[in-house]
Amino acid sequence: MLGWELPPHHTGGMGIVCYQLCKKLAQSGADIEFILPYTADFSAIDFMKINPALPNGAKEVLGQSAGSTYSSQYFKYFYSDGSTRGVAMDEHQKNYAEYAAKIALLGSYDIIHAHDWLTFRAGLMAKQMCGKPLIVHIHSTEFDRAGGKNGNPMVREIEYMGLQLADKIIAVSEATKRAIIREYDIDASKIVVAHNAMEFEPHELEDTHSNVFVYLKQMQTSGYKVVLSAGRLTIQKGLSHLVYAMQKVVKHRPKTLLLFVGSGEQQIELMNLAAELGIGANVLFTGHLNGTGKSWRDSFRVADIFVMPSISEPFGLTPFEAITHGTPVLISRQSGVAELLQNSLKVDFWDIDEMANHISCVLDNQDLQDTLIEMGQIELKNLTWDKSVSTLLEEYNKHINVGLQHA
Amino acid sequence: MPKRAIVLYLHVHQPYRIRHYTIFDAGIDHNYFDTHEGDRTNNADIIRKVAYKSYIPTNERLLRMLHDNQEFKLSMSITGTVLEQFEQYAPEVLESFKQVIKTGRVEIVAETYHHSLAFFYSRSEFEAQVKKHADKIYELFGVVPTAFRNTELSYNNDIAYWADQAGYKAILSEGWDPVLGWRSPNFVYRPAYTNNIKLLTKNYKLSDDIAFRFSNRSWEEYPLTTEKYLQWLNSSWDQPLVNLFMDYETFGEHQWEDTGIFNFLEHLPHVWLGDTNHTFMTVSEAAESFEAVDQIDVPHTITWADTERDLTAWLGNKMQQGSIAALYALESAVLKSNDAELLEDWRKLQTSDHFYYMCTKWWSDGDVHAYFSPYESPYIAYENFMNAYHDIQYRLSIKGLLE
């Protein structure tokens, strides 16, 4: 398994998905070795072997940002003689690939399973080296990350190579499958959809302490309602549409606050937009919050509605968290998770009027909130990893058998 | 000794579906029910579609059947909301119903004009709607109903008592086993605590063979022929009635023409009347022809819906309970307004279908196809309804009528 991050040292949903998926696969009998691009303490993971890539005699590799990971543009190599070297993303990716290929050649593996473009070079080199089938898993395409535009040509190139040369492609949603066919002209029969799930550990659901959002709690006692958005503040997430919708909501219902949890390059732009629209005092920003921390969870617990207005979202896990923590969700039809969640409100990301209508209806009607949550929580109990895990195991077996026939 | 009789009863209804109506429309646009052509909630489109698939062809056949078999009779209930829509969008359909009813062998059954659950929320509003319906029926067809059915065949001792006091000869209910116990639905009964009225109970097995199972290819009895059906009808040869109650739209809309449903319908009287001991009766006729064999006590409400046969499809969740209670809470203000349009809009919102669309019972099973609704989800149905409700509130408020 080739992946770019795992919790607790991660920044995005991708790390959580890899973690939960591997855990379920391991429980179903898969023997997994997971190759990561950085070193960190993963002693809590006992269901698979974690193998940090250590290229060129380095004894430790750290991402530039705290802890590591996905958003790091630079990596730092530490050598046993005490010296260090800074390495750019592109070079690190190549080193990671060489390391993975070496591991693939030395060990005895049946399948190479690579998650997203960052690991595709490694997947391709490993396949070339040991001749084993390569399965690539698409959590998002460059088209998604660029908010529905072409994005970085080099990334597209790598993605294209990976998709073309893989033996099988796993897409996290039907929408992602369509994007792969449309953007890269891949044969539909080569792609299978395995939806993500989100299974919570009991300790993640416990909360004995009071909510960290003391201000918001106080405002709610005097009739305010809280609209929540959580995630990176980036173009892909369609957040400016939400700010425009909020202007309409606030006009209808002045006691409404919008809380942005997360950081990103759009923060200043969104602040300016809110000010321009005259709702500056109604829009709050927390900055970055750790996705496994109490503040993150408390933001869902304090909110009256969670909105994910993504322009393009291959899947989108945050609605699962919101429902689990008792907050109804409004999600864009352009998100993969909209294919699954029945007990949610759905809107086209560009439809500001309808977005404002849904938000207002939820805030005005407690019965709607209660029913969405009650039914949503029942629904989530049934949305487990089981189906996707059996899809994956089936693909593994198919390709292992094909390999045996050739041998 | 009267002959054995089939009592065929068909229910005709369409609601005024609420259009996509947002909170930003409330207070500005008081039109809740009209939308552009092609929209899934466009009532005119739906009426014309169902007219073409069901009402016109079925009435054509009923007329022929009435003409060909002098003993063929049936009963119908037609709601006020569907009659109004025929007048507005498909006058030729209304004309065809008039012709069928003019034969004198089609009994019209009374009910609430707006196909509402008013009985459970406001007795005075309920009575006003039953009267409005009777007036409409007399105006259009020149007949006075003598039998009563409440919305969705909802039934309990109170409803029967009310209908008895109101002078009806017969009332209809589901022939639900937990209520009937060892008794058969093929007899006439007397509702508990009543003196005159008789109760006819739906034979749901034989009714649903036609209404639900007729075109089901995985049903072991598929395909259903009139000959096979006759055997089933004859299996209770020593019992006087077979009460076949169903939605009129079974013919052509729920079961499409290509399933052979029309031929089945048209063939049935020939096959049944082949035995000279067989006949057809209307509901009031059946009530008059047979003595009640026992009393039926129904303290809790039953309906003809779902496996539960209760009201949970309309009043099962908080959205349904909250919205209907909020609507009826406006009654006295609406009546005080002396505003006919406002009253009519408020009444159109009472139609039970609006609450049915908010049902979440089947929603999480992914079994969304079992569930007929013009809305994307029960939540959207609720939003449109509540926004329209808020506009009613607004209209009352500007008249100074909202407390």
Largest protein-protein interface: A-B, 26 and 24 residues
> What is the number of independent domains of chain A?
2
Query: For the terminal residues of chain B, how far apart are their CA atoms?
Result: 62 Å
**Averaged pLDDT of chain A, please?**
91
Biggest β-sheet description of chain B: 5 strands, parallel
Residues in β-strands, percent of chain A: 15-25%
Q: Which descriptor suits the 3D outline of chain A?
A: globular
Q: Which stretches of chain A are low in confidence, meaning pLDDT under 50 for 5 or more residues running?
A: 66-70
As a percent range, the share of helical residues of chain A equals: 40-55%
The geometry of chain B reads as globular
Gap from first CA to last CA of chain A: 23 Å
Radius of gyration of chain A, CA atoms, in whole angstroms: 22 Å
CATH architectural arrangement of the largest domain in chain B: Alpha-Beta Barrel
What top-tier CATH class of the largest domain in chain A fits best? Answer: Alpha Beta
The CATH superfamily name of the largest domain in chain A is Glycogen Phosphorylase B
What's the quaternary structure here?
heterodimer
Number of helical segments of chain A?
Answer: 15
**Which CATH C-level class of the largest domain in chain B is it?**
Alpha Beta
